[in-house]
Design goal:
Blueprint: E1 2-13, E2 16-27, E3 31-35, H1 42-49, E4 57-62, E5 65-66, H2 71-77, E6 78-81, H3 93-103, H4 108-121, H5 137-149, E7 155-159, H6 167-184, E8 187-192, H7 195-201, E9 204-209, E10 212-217, H8 219-224, E11 230-234, H9 238-247, E12 252-254, E13 259-263, H10 268-280, E14 287-291, H11 295-302, H12 304-307
Parallel strand pairs: 3-8, 3-9, 6-7, 7-8
Antiparallel strand pairs: 1-2, 1-4, 4-5, 9-10, 11-13, 11-14, 12-13
C-alpha cells in the first residue's frame, strides 16, 4: 500500500512553473529520496504533500487521506522537519518536547512519558534541562526530529535534514532515520542535495529537475542508466601504457600517473575482453580496477546543463 501518492502535481508562481506534473508512489515503511538541485521543486513538493501549500493541479494522498479534501487527517498522520530548525531557543529541550505534546493535545502524563522516551532515544537526556541556545547544530537537529515524533506520525517529511551538519552529526542522523523505518515502520520522504545521503538511506530515489521527475529507481538502477562505468588500468612503465592505449580507441591515458581509463559497462564479458586484448598483445598491467557510475554521474547527467 502506498503511504504517499501523487498524480500530476502542478504549482506556478506567476509565469514561473515550479512543479510541472509530478507523479510519486511511495510504499509504506520505506525511505524515498527526492534528489535535485536548488530550485528543482523539492521543498514545494513537500509543502503540498504536508498541506502547507495548495497545488494548482493534480491530486495527492498521504496515509490514505486526500491532501486537499482531508487536510486534517493528513496533519494528524504526518511529521515535518523543515530545512531550518523549528526549536524554541528560549526553552530547554524538555520544554520544547512538552510544548509539542500540548499542541498534540496529549494528556500531561502521556506527554511527559513521550518526551522522556524521545530524549533517551536521541541521546539528549543529559541536555534535557539546558537551554536550546547552547546546543550544537547536530543537537538542535536531533531535537527538531524528536519534536516531529511526539505525535507518533505514520509518515515523516524530512526537507534537507542534515544541511549544515558536520560528517559525524550527519551519520548520526542517518542512523536515527534508519531506526525510525526499521523499528517503527514509518515512511520517510527525504529531500536532499547530498548524493551520498540518498545512496545510503533511500530504498528508492526520484531525480527532480525543472519541476519534473526525470528519473526514478533504486540507487543501483539509476547508476546503470547513465554512462559512467570505467575500467582503470595501472602500468609500471610508459611503454606498456602506450601499447595499451593503442588497443582501446576510446581510452584516456594519463602519462604522468601511468594510468589508462577505458569506458565500459563493467560487465564480466567487457572485463574479460579487455584482459584478452592485453594478453594477446603481450601488454602487462600492474592492476585493474572496475568503477561503476555513481550518483554524482546520475545527478550531473540528468539535471541542469547536463540534461540539456
Amino acid at each position: 500500500m502506498a503511504a504517499v501518492s501523487a498524480r500530476g502535481l502542478t504549482k506556478s508562481y506567476g509565469d514561473k512553473a515550479v512543479l510541472n506534473g509530478v507523479d510519486l508512489e511511495i510504499p509504506a515503511g520505506s525511505v524515498f529520496a527526492l534528489l535535485g538541485p536548488n530550485g528543482a521543486g523539492k521543498t514545494t513538493t513537500v509543502q503540498i504533500l504536508s498541506t502547507l501549500l495548495p497545488a494548482d493541479g493534480g491530486t495527492a494522498r498521504v496515509a490514505g487521506y486526500d491532501v486537499a479534501a482531508q487536510a486534517d487527517g493528513v496533519r494528524r498522520s504526518i511529521g515535518v522537519t523543515g530545512q531550518f530548525s523549528a526549536v524554541d531557543n528560549l526553552l530547554t529541550a524538555e520544554e520544547n518536547l512538552l510544548l509539542m505534546a500540548d499542541l498534540h493535545h496529549l494528556r500531561r502524563r502521556e506527554g511527559r512519558r513521550r518526551a522522556e522516551g524521545l530524549l533517551r532515544r536521541f541521546d539528549l537526556t543529559e541536555a534535557a534541562r539546558k537551554s536550546v541556545s547552547t546546543f550544537s547544530g547536530g543537537m538542535r537537529r536531533k531535537l527538531d526530529l524528536a519534536m516531529t515524533l511526539v505525535g507518533d506520525p505514520q509518515v515523516i517529511f524530512l526537507d534537507e535534514p542534515t544541511t549544515g551538519l558536520d560528517p559525524r552529526s550527519r551519520r548520526t542522523m542517518w542512523e536515527i532515520i534508519r531506526g525510525l523505518v526499521g523499528e517503527q515502520g514509518v515512511t520517510v520522504l527525504l529531500t536532499t542535495q547530498y548524493l551520498e545521503e540518498a545512496d545510503q538511506l533511500a530504498d528508492r530515489i526520484a531525480v527532480l529537475d525543472g519541476g519534473r521527475i526525470v528519473a526514478e529507481g533504486t540507487a543501483e538502477e539509476l547508476k546503470r542508466i547513465v554512462p559512467g562505468g570505467r575500467i582503470r588500468l595501472q602500468f609500471a612503465d610508459p611503454g606498456h601504457l602506450d601499447a595499451a592505449a593503442r588497443l582501446f580507441e576510446y581510452a584516456t591515458a594519463d602519462a604522468e600517473a601511468l594510468r589508462l581509463e577505458i569506458p565500459g559497462d563493467n560487465s564480466v564479458l567487457t572485463v574479460k575482453a579487455v584482459l584478452d586484448a592485453l594478453d594477446n598483445a603481450s601488454v602487462r598491467a600492474e592492476s585493474l580496477v572496475v568503477e561503476t557510475a555513481d550518483l554524482d554521474d546520475v545527478f550531473l547527467t540528468l539535471t541542469g546543463e547536463g540534461a540539456r
